[in-house]
Hints:
Keywords: Endonuclease, Hydrolase, Nuclease. One of its GO terms (molecular function) is endonuclease activity. The protein has about 250 residues and is mainly alpha-helical. It has helices at about 5-20, 75-90, 95, 105-120, 130-145, 155-165, 170-185, 190-200, 215-220, 225-235, 235-254; strands spanning about 35, 50, 55, 55, 60-65, 65-70. The longest helix has 18 residues, at about 130-145. The protein is globular.
Amino acid sequence: xxxxxxxxxxxxxxxxxxxxxxxxxxxxxxxxxxxxxxxxxxxxxxxxxxxxxxxxxxxxxxxxxxxxxxxxxxxxxxxxxxxxxxxxxxxxxxxxxxxxxxxxxxxxxxxxxxxxxxxxxxxxxxxxxxxxxxxxxxxxxxxxxxxxxxxxxxxxxxxxxxxxxxxxxxxxxxxxxxxxxxxxxxxxxxxxxxxxxxxxxxxxxxxxxxxxxxxxxxxxxxxxxxxxxxxxxxxxxxxxxxxxxxxxxxxxxx
Length: 254
């Protein structure tokens, strides 16, 4: 449940509670949490109650497997996914580092069992330069262990890719492809996601450098202004061509 202020949220909670009880359903207060998403360093406390009992306010929460934080950023979720991917690879290391299996086969297994864990909900991430470096570092970490290349050999990433027969990294490109496809899907359908994506917040932005936005990622990947992307995305085939052409150009520049 989303609301702009504490009073509206309390009214919404009360309405949901009343309608649920008409159907014999009840809200479990132990499984219900509140969160204030804000840019402020000191997050305000709110007092939402159900049957007179205060709902716990948290700084982060896992919703449908996705880690949501009160600062509204993706940094902690991406880093958490990197850790989960590395743990999965370590558990399967005997198989994924076995040289009796071709590297191509092990690569497909890695994409199936390791990449799939890391890429969960990647369409919603807002990426900055630091996170992109972390993502590329994860991919190279996987390749070096699959090829059993020790850090003591002091081989550059380019040399590692040449040794395993790859021309460039793919993980970051996969994320950007999914984000563009997701943007096109949202743009062509009437939904809550579209209202959130295209909505505007009243007031002035804070002083300082503007924070990187999800739509800003779309602009950077397509090298187009967002208003142009809005028009192109309405045509499914034209948007698919845009995705393919932009990612091909990116691959050529690597």
